[in-house]
Design brief:
mainly beta, seven-stranded antiparallel β-sheet, 28 strands
């Protein structure tokens, strides 16, 4: 995130860092062109440490059989060989057996289809366009598509197409040898990846922010989920903030309940208060009553999906609670401060009856905002709260108890058996 606010606990001198939400502008990884296979021919020695890829093997067949355009299996399981010259079918079968092994040739032989281009021509085109194309936002993949005898460019959404057409034109390559296809984003299989149905403990994106989906919930007859109010476009009050999972444009839900903060009464002078940093989103995609669990702190791979058989509305001091967030994964802490009145540093917000769980190791990070807090028992999670802040000296995370969240939002968790609990 671009900045961190400081949160101070009213009941102690410890300093906490406000978790906030991770910035959307994360560092893009360097794109490495997948083009080395073009040079893997009989006259170019391969490194003994580099295993031969499928494309390397197809290039060997191409070198042996002029006019070889690639091969694939069709829906009937037949091996289809693309050839510029149909008369090369016997030679192609021999070359395929020599390169891949005789077992590659079905007992009934191969099926041939015409090819407009050889595999080596397509591979050279692939190498030519890949560095420029894959550096563009919204492009997912490039591939020599043996089935179409063209080079395929996969894109996340239709809006990417126009910019891509300009790149292809600038490169001066044969447009009729290229297909542009919508394939959607390919996301990591971890808490930052895309999941359907949606569950607790996985990444969501709201405009300008990354946060964590807390837990599925029911509000009357409406199925949705809960995350932090500060993950919405305006903290407190409803602006119909969209939430995407894992990223735009895959809409997961829309904000429908987010009580305003108010002063006066028991609220400290000059501040505005609530019982929880929470908001309810009506779901626009299927929802499962599960919570993601990772192997440990900052390991974001999902090791299991926890069933949610029940809940604890207000935990007690000294109990150990867990949370799963999109940045630090599954971590734990011992409740040191229970039902405390807590100021969120760097903001005017104060929370009544909130909790702080401490740990010898770091147990929260930017982007964990909205993480579900729960008691872990075997492969089940008893929900007990929603994380909204974290800090150090000692390491800790702050969370609102489930009882306060239910009271403010008028929700109940969506639990095992696909019912409210």
């Amino acid at each position: 995130m671009s900045k961190q606010g400081i949160l101070r606990v009213a009941v102690s001198g410890a300093t906490l860092w406000w978790v906030g939400c991770g910035d959307v502008s994360e560092r893009a990884e360097e794109v490495v062109p997948v083009s080395r296979a073009v040079a893997t021919r009989a006259d170019v020695p391969s490194s003994p440490l580099r295993l031969r890829t499928l494309d390397d093997a197809l290039l060997e067949v191409d070198a042996a059989v002029p006019g070889f355009g690639g091969m694939y299996y069709d829906e009937k399981g037949q091996l289809v060989v693309r050839l510029v010259h149909a008369s090369a079918a016997p030679a192609a079968s021999r070359a395929i057996a020599a390169v891949f092994g005789q077992e590659k040739i079905p007992a009934e032989g191969v099926v041939t289809e015409p090819a407009a281009r050889t595999f080596s021509q397509l591979k050279a085109l692939h190498a030519r366009i890949t560095p420029s194309v894959l550096s563009q936002a919204g492009v997912v993949l490039t591939d020599v598509d043996e089935k179409t005898n063209r080079v395929a460019i996969g894109i996340e959404r239709a809006e990417v197409r126009s910019g891509l057409e300009k790149i292809i034109e600038r490169l001066g390559v044969a447009r009729d040898a290229i297909d542009i296809v919508e394939v959607g984003p390919i996301l990591p299989t971890n808490v930052q990846g895309g999941w359907r149905p949606i569950n607790g403990g996985i990444q969501i994106e709201t405009p300008g922010k990354y946060c964590t989906l807390g837990f599925p919930a029911l509000q009357g007859g409406t199925l949705g989920f809960v995350t932090n109010s500060h993950c919405t476009q305006t903290q407190g009050g409803v602006e119909s903030t969209p939430a995407y999972q894992a990223v735009y444009p895959d809409l997961a839900g829309t904000e429908t309940t987010d009580p305003v903060y108010s002063g006066g009464g028991n609220c400290p002078a000059g501040r505005i208060c609530r019982d929880s940093d929470s908001a309810f989103f009506s779901a626009s995609t299927p929802v499962n009553p599960l919570v993601a669990m990772t192997p440990g702190a900052f390991n974001l791979s999902i090791s299991s999906w926890l069933d949610v058989p029940g809940k604890v509305l207000y935990p007690s001091q000294g109990q150990v609670v867990y949370k799963t967030g999109r940045s630090s994964g599954t971590t734990s802490g011992t409740i040191q401060w229970a039902c405390a009145t807590v100021n969120s540093g760097g903001t005017p917000h104060t929370y009544f009856c909130n909790y702080i769980a401490t740990s010898p190791q770091q147990n929260g990070a930017p982007g964990d905002s909205g993480s579900p807090v729960y008691f872990l028992s075997g492969n089940t999670a008893q929900l007990t709260g929603l994380m909204w802040g974290s800090g150090a000296e000692p390491w800790n995370f702050a969370f609102a108890p489930l009882g306060s969240i239910q009271n403010e939002l008028g929700i109940v968790p969506y639990c095992q058996g696909f019912v409210g609990c």
